[in-house]
Amino acid sequence: MKFALFLGCNIPVRVSQYELSARAVLDKLGVEVVDIREFKCCGNPIRNTDNRTFVLMAARNLALAEKQGLDMMVLCKCCFGSLKKAVHLMKQNSGLKEEVNAFLAEEGLKYSGTLKVKHFLSVLYHDIGISTLKEKVSRTFKSIKIAPHYGCHALRPSDITEFDDPVAPVLFDELVSATGAQSIDWPLKLECCGAPLLGINDRLSMDLTGKKLADAKRAGADYLCVACPFCQMQFGRVQKMMTASNDINNCLLSILYPQLIGLAMGIGGNALGINMNIPDISSIESFLL
Asked: Under the phi-then-psi rule, with left for phi > 0, alpha for psi from -120 to 50, and beta for the rest, what region is 177?
C-alpha cells in the first residue's frame, strides 16, 4: 500500500507531532508514503476569494501525485476538503479543467482526474480496516473515555468529501474504540471548533471552543481526540487561556489520533511527539495496560 503524503502548510511548522506520529503509525502498519517536495499550499486560504486560483493551486498538487501514479493521503482536514472540492469542481466543469491544465502544461503537468484523495482516518478505516488495527494493538487503553472531534471540512459537504455520514458519523468513533478506549457521544460533537473565526471575532471563536470543551467534559470525557492541525491548535490555545485564568473546571486535554493509536500499538511516546503537545498530555499514558 503506497500513497503520496500531503502535509499542507501548517503541520510541518506548527503541529509537527501530527506528522511524526502519523509516519510512525503508518510505518508500523506497513504503509509506504512518498514525499513529493514540489507540493505547495492546497489553496484553502483563498478558496472563497479567488476560486480559479484556488482550483489551480489544488490541481497542481493533484497533478504531481498523478504523475507519480499515486493516490493522495492527506492529514489536514482543511486541505482534504479543499482538494476534494477542487476535484469536484473540475469534474463538473470541463472548461475549468481545461483552463487549469493549460497553466499546468507550463510545468509539464496535467490533471486527469484518475487519483483518489483520502484523509488519513479514511485510509486507516477503509484501506487498513478496524480488525487489522486491533490486531496491531499491544497496549490497550482501559477506563478512559475519549470524545472524538470530527471537525467540519471532512464531513461537509458530504457529497463532495465522501468521508462519512455528516449527521451520524461513526468512522472516528470506531477508530477510537479500536484502541480500547471508550468513545463517547456528546451534544456538540459535530460543531465547529471555532478556529475559522480567529482573527475575525476572537471572543466568539474562544467562546465556541470553550463551550465544546465544557460540553465534552460534562459528557464524561477524559480527553478530546482530533485529527486536524487547526482544531488541535485551537483547542490547545484555549486550554492555555483557561489555565492562565484559573478556569480549570472546563479544561480538557486533546490528543491527535495517530498519537492515541500509536500508544496503543506500543510505539514510544517520544516517537509519537507526545512531549510536543501543549498543554502536556503525557498523563494519558497512565491509562495504558
From this structure: alpha
